[in-house]
Amino acid sequence: MMPDPVDFTPLLEQFKTAGLLKMMGDTPLISVHSNELFSVVTFVKEAMGFILLLDITAVDNLDMAHPTSTRFELIYLFRHKDFNKTMALKTAIVDPDVGVETILPLYDAADWLEREVWDQYGVLFQNHPTLKRILNHNEFVGHPLRKDYEITKGQYCTETQDMLDEMQPLLDARGLDMERDELMILNLGPSHPASHGTIRTLVALDGETVRAGASEIGYLHRGFEKSCENHDYNQIIPYTDRLNYCSALMNNIAFAKTVEDMLGVTLPDRGIFIRVILTELSRVIDHLVCLAAGLLDMGAQTNYWYLFNPRNDATDFLSKLTGARLTNSYMRIGGMTHDLYDGWRADLDDILKKVDSGIAQTLTMIEHNRIYQDRIQNISPVSAEQAIAYGFTGPNLRASGVPYDLRFDKPYYYYDTFDFDLVVGSQGDTHDRMMVRFEEMLQSIKIIRQAADTLPGGEFNIADHRIVMPPKTAVYNSIEGMMNQFKLVYEGVKVPKGEYYGAFEAANGELGFYIVSDGSGTPYKVKVRAPSFLHMAAYPKIIENYQVADAIMTLGSLNIIAGEMDR
Amino acid sequence: MEVAYIIETLIKIVVILLVFSALAGFGTYFERKILAFMQRRLGPMHVGPFGLLQIAADGIKLFTKEDIVPTNAVGPIFKIAPVITAATAFMAAAAIPFLPQFTIFGYTVHPIVADVNIGILYILGVMAVGFYGPLLGSLASSNKFALISAARAASVFISYEVVTGLSLLAPLMMVGSFSLIDFNNYQAGGIGDWIIWSQPVAFVLFWIAAFAETGRTPFHLVANDHEIIDGFGTEYSGMRWGLFFIGEYANMFFISFVIVLLFLGGFGDGSVLGALGFLLKMSFFFFFFLWTRAAWPDIRPDQLMWLCWKVLMPLAVINVVVTGFVMMF
User: Fold this and answer.
1) CB within 8 Å of chain B, chain A residues 535-564
2) Domain residues for B180?
3) CA A18 to chain CA centroid, nearest Å
């Protein structure tokens, strides 16, 4: 069932300067005057019900063949409260040093998103309280995603920041004083045993209670988006492996699917079913890693192996299938490198059985364990409204009781034909965030079994050899095959000019790719909407007034993956 | 006679030191193996048969590692702190009868260094001094994680000293002596005479407190690696860190001995069977430390305080009062 198209006429009636630029799939892209941006966004949120801010990004039109009126344009992506509709606003920036008004009063999620745009593109957001670098180092000079910043230009940055410029306003806002209240500043990370990747959180401690916190990220920033502008679409796939490295295949699939949607092609059913099986297996692996590490953080050691051993078997299966355990790079635009191997079904069934029993045994150990329940219940609860304001998606949002899952709300890949349940929590505390993941694994296993049972035969790649590599026999024996091969290797997949936002329900939440193509084989711009980025932005706020031990558990239950957060 | 007594005592001290230093090493091996079996993995396998020489490898590593004293640390205190932990652990062993007395070459040996008539008080006191190790070590190492660890150490150990002391009061009232030998003899009549039957509450309280005092899961807070790196051990390296470790494991062994002596009949009538039973019972309690670590998560510091002051301490007091009434009438 297709959702109703977005009715954006009220917006056009209200604001005379606004106009529909184009439809990106079923997402309208509406141009807005930068002076009116704040009131338009207010209208979009209050009157039209687009309550979830997905992403903010900019485009640098310097290299565009036909430049638009201004060099910089800002893109705002929103999701409707029914969760099946998205809308995009585009606003031209006349002067990046003047920029636009911040939308932070409307969406808490805008905090880090606007900082990132400023950091990467140098577009100013007026009245943003802490507009400072977030992904790049504080000593960094220039804005790397601008087209006139050379991709090879590295900078040596050595000094760490003390972050008191962020901490002091927080303390002032709470009426706290370091000396008077005998607070202690403590760095949790970047190399803390439980920081799950290099993440730094500066906390002001009163005893063991966190009174204020500020996070610094970017330790794993490697310029994914800049690299994308220098590689063709298939070359980007190995980079997507490194986004959420716990479920690399899912990133492969999400990226490939977005590009396929831009090309207007869909895979044959066999390809789709293989992707569904691997997506859900990746989701299981991702949740297993999250829960195993989370339980280890509270000292429940044994569960780590109960959950990690089946995960190990699952990566063995992926290794057998794709040649790599962690960074699979199995997908290609228009399909995948090769078909499933003979005997995959027996291996898969074996893994699912092991995962099932690993989950069952872990739950036996913890479900009715008083210590476990006392440690995680009512810790860092996030209400449904607050979770949406923070931009939470995925299991963390569902734990707060919001039934948003793209597989239900906007099904792709035949998800509407599978029999599985939407898992929601109620309190949004650490307990719910963990238990939702336990249940989601069981639902994913159900999907895998159904998809494997009904896996159709036939081709798994699309037949168009301008997109998918032709078979070697065709390359050696026919001029068309050789030309296809040559064009694909030298120029890459030619994606029609335009922009597109593709959303995918990944293990951590909505994984989105906003891609701008100039018609060549290399994307003009790629922006990842990484769920962990927004989860991490909320983290220092939700650990307030809980203890250090709770903060560690909260970080584990949010499942922050530094790879996709820092990009 | 005097000289013979001194020589005998010295020999006993050396034997206990050697045996328990080695046992502390083997304790880590047992722990790793038992945890491994419970967690479906192999544990140490590569050094020697079944990884038995892993202890030697670890020992060599600890002894040959560079001994780092941080610039800002308070040097003398930083250096002495691990010694306090290890030394007090072994000092506590002086009042523990490890086996019934036996005769060898016509000479009667009492396998206890000093049968002081306040043995239990002595053991509790010396073990309490042992807490100065983590406390001073963490305060001296000028590290914030160690500072949190110091705060945890001070609160946890002081709180659980109270529980330990109060839970022991009731059995002490029954036996009427502080000597562990007297405790053993009081229960020498067989399983029915064990104090655990008449003082089950005291037994459970003492046992729980033992977990807190040795810092074992679920009360593994003072050096909880997931929250505060290694707590007091964060800045320590090499054998200084190793001494903390030896102290912890020696304490686990000694506490296991003490629990058996106090509540489970000790070595009974002193026969060979009794001696074997003694070691078996002790091993069970040591094993139980490891078993709990495999089974349970860690509790939070404030929950630990809640458990101590709002649950265990009142129970211990009630137990003392009830015991008093029962003995009076």
Assistant:
1) 547-550, 552
2) 2-328
3) 29
Write down the H helix ranges in B75-234.
75-92, 119-130, 132-140, 144-175, 180-186, 195-198, 200-214, 225-228
Per-residue pLDDT reduced to its tens digit, A301-313: 888 889 989 999 9
C-beta of residue A216 within 8 angstroms of C-beta of residue A505: no
- What CA–CA distance (Å, rounded) separates A282 from A133? 33
Tens of pLDDT, residue by residue over B165-211, are 888 888 888 888 888 888 888 887 777 778 888 888 889 999 998 88
What one-character DSSP code corresponds to residue A501?
A: E
Residue A1 clears pLDDT 50, i.e. is over it: no
The one-letter amino acid code at B140 reads A
B301 interaction partners in chain A (CB closer than 8 Å): 208, 547, 549
The answer to whether the CB of A139 falls within 8 A of the CB of A567 is no
Residue length of chain B: 329
Give the chain B residue nearest A205 (alpha carbons): B148
Of A105, A126, A147, which one is at a domain's C-terminal end?
A126
Q: Which two three-digit tokens encode residue B110?
A: 């009492």
- Cβ contact A299–B298 (<8 Å): yes
Of the residues A126, A152, A176, which one is the last residue of a structural domain?
A126
Nearest to A208 among B41, B225, B301 (CB): B301
**What ipTM does the predicted assembly reach?**
0.84
The CATH number that applies at residue A39 is 3.30.460.80
Which residues, other chains included, contact A191 with Cβ-Cβ below 8 Å and sequence gap of 6+?
Answer: A198
Give the integer Cα–Cα distance in Å for B184 and B182: 5
Give the integer Cα–Cα distance in Å for B131 and B150.
Answer: 10
Q: Residue A210, class by beta-carbon neighbours within 10 Å (0-12 exposed, 13-18 middle, 19+ buried)?
A: buried
Q: C-alpha angle B172/B173/B176, rounded to 5°?
A: 75
pLDDT digits (tens, 9 = 90+) for A116-141: 999 999 888 888 888 888 888 888 88
Query: Which amino acid is present at A479?
Result: I
Q: Specify whether the CB–CB gap between B98 and B119 falls below 8 A.
A: no
- The answer to the question of residue A147 being in a domain is no
Report if residue A166 sits inside a domain.
no
- Cα–Cα distance measured from residue B285 to residue B59, given in angstroms and rounded to the nearest whole number: 25
For residue A378, give the 3-state DSSP assignment.
coil
Structure tokens that stand for A379 in this block: 């810790």
The answer to whether position A61 is within a domain reads yes
Q: Considering its fold, how many domains does chain A have in total?
A: 2
Please give the C-alpha separations between residue A310 and each of A31, A196, A353, in angstroms, as whole numbers.
50, 20, 9
pTM (2 decimals)? 0.88
Tell me if chain B has a CB within 8 Å of the CB of A292: no
Is the same domain home to A109 and A242?
Answer: no
Name the token pair of B35.
């945890």
Interface test with A, best of B219, B226, B289, B310 (most A CBs within 10 A): B226
* Count of domains for chain B: 1
**Domain range enclosing A116:** 9-126
CA A343 – CA A332 distance, rounded (Å) = 23
Q: Within a domain: residue A542?
A: yes
Q: 């009426």: which residue's tokens?
A: A175
Residue A92's DSSP bridge partners are A73
Do A247 and A115 belong to one domain? no
A297 with A194: CB under 8 angstroms?
yes
Q: Which residues of B touch A548 (CB under 8 A)?
A: 148, 227-228
Distance CA A27, CA A34 (A): 20
Helix then strand count (H, E) for chain A reads 20, 15
Which of A193, A301, A369 comes nearest B294 by C-beta? A301
Residue found by looking up tokens 């026999």 in the block? A473
Tell me what the mean pLDDT of segment B7-13 comes to: 84
